[in-house]
Each structure stands twice: as structure tokens, then as C-alpha cells.
Write a structure and sequence with these properties.
Radius of gyration: 15 Å
Largest sheet: 3 strands, antiparallel
Helix content: 40-55%
Strand order of the largest sheet: 1-3-2
Structural class: alpha+beta
Order of helices and strands: EEEHHHH
Number of domains: 2
Distance between the termini: 36 Å
Strand content: 5-15%
Number of strands: 3
Length: about 100
């Protein structure tokens, strides 16, 4: 079993990986390109993460965590209110619009 941030792979956070770390492939970085190797984000990746992330990467990471919290309990309006502006800021406008209608 992996030391993942997400419980029991319920909502895995995928990150780019080297060929030897690869757990799968994805096209989320380049939709029309060839699939790239990815792996699940793990707790151990958090060690000194702030030193290695750009401001944009940190904001994106924070938005994904906020989305995860909001999806765990959709009736939690506080979590939804925190997540929506973050989603808009990182460019997930369609998702934030769809969620704000409910």
C-alpha cells in the first residue's frame, strides 16, 4: 500500500513522474500530446515542498486540497465558499460556476 495523501485512492492527486516512478499515464498537461508518466502524490512529497514550489504551484495545490475538502462533505458550505474563489483564481472557471449553482 502507498503512503498517499488521499485515503484509499478515493481522489488521487496525480503528479508528473519519472519513468522509474511511473504508476500510470495522463494527458492533463498536454491534451493533444502523448500521454506522460504520472504517479500519486504521497505524504512524503510534502517534506520541504514549500521550498520547491513556485507561488503558482502552491496556489494550485492549495486549491486542489480545498476542492478535496469540499467534495468530502458537499453540505459543508464553508468549505465550498473557501474552494470556489481558489478554483476561479487558478482557472477552473467552469467547475466553480457549476458548483456555485447548487
Amino acid at each position: 500500500m502507498y503512503d498517499n495523501v488521499t485515503q484509499q485512492f478515493s481522489l488521487p492527486v496525480l503528479i508528473p513522474a519519472t519513468a522509474d516512478q511511473q504508476e500510470g499515464v495522463a494527458t492533463f498537461e498536454q491534451e493533444l500530446g502523448a500521454p506522460a508518466p504520472v504517479r500519486c502524490f504521497k505524504d512524503s512529497d510534502l517534506k520541504d515542498a514549500a521550498k520547491h514550489m513556485t507561488e503558482a504551484e502552491a496556489l494550485h495545490f492549495h486549491a486542489v486540497i480545498a476542492l478535496t475538502h469540499a467534495l468530502q462533505n458537499p453540505s459543508d458550505t464553508i468549505a465550498l465558499r473557501k474552494m470556489l474563489p481558489l478554483m476561479r483564481h487558478i482557472g477552473f472557471v467552469g467547475l466553480s460556476r457549476a458548483l456555485s449553482r447548487d
